[in-house]
Design goal:
It is built from 3 helices and 7 strands, in the order ααββαβββββ. By secondary structure, it is α+β, with helices and mostly antiparallel strands.
């Protein structure tokens, strides 16, 4: 090893210890600050991406949720003689009105499926304290995602729940 190299090295270390090399310390501080800034920006971008992905997923699920709730509400609040999935309530001919939230097993069994583009009704089930039953309307279709809409009803005078499963086709 050359003595001039050794002298240069000790001189350099001595400058660091004494604090004479202000430019080097400034460069080190700037490098650390820049690294922290880059890491915080990366975290911000990742959080923003996660938020955007969740928002996109919520928008995609909104249509299915909307249709499921509309179908369930229509089922327990309307009357349709041809297809009881559009309305299965009892009709009171004396008062000329529908008895909302009162349905019969016959009307549940007569329900036929309807579809809204890729969205269809897969099954209807009901439960009371004494009985549970499920009716498959669309068996065999491959579903991407399903949502259950549950409503309180009177089924032939007994308190119970009606559950309508609405799915999105693959």
């Amino acid at each position: 090893m050359n003595t001039t190299d050794k002298n240069k090295r000790t001189l350099f270390v001595g400058h660091l210890l004494r604090g004479d090399c202000k430019g080097m310390i400034f460069s080190l501080d700037a490098g650390i600050s820049f690294t922290i800034l880059l890491i915080s920006m990366l975290v911000f971008v990742l959080m923003l991406n996660n938020y955007a992905e969740k928002a996109k997923q919520n928008i995609e699920n909104f249509e299915l949720e909307e249709k499921a709730l509309m179908i369930a509400d229509s089922f327990v609040k309307n009357f349709d003689e041809n297809n009881t999935i559009r309305g299965a309530c009892l009709y009171d001919p004396e008062k000329k009105r529908v008895k909302t939230n009162e349905i019969t097993l016959e009307n549940i069994k007569k329900a036929k499926t309807i579809s809204f583009g890729r969205i269809f009704i897969q099954k209807i089930s009901y439960s009371t304290k004494t009985k549970e039953e499920t009716f498959m309307l669309e068996a065999g279709k491959k579903e991407k995602q399903c949502i259950n809409a549950k409503r309180f009803v009177l089924i032939e005078g007994k308190k119970g729940f009606i559950n309508i499963q609405t799915c999105e086709e693959m």
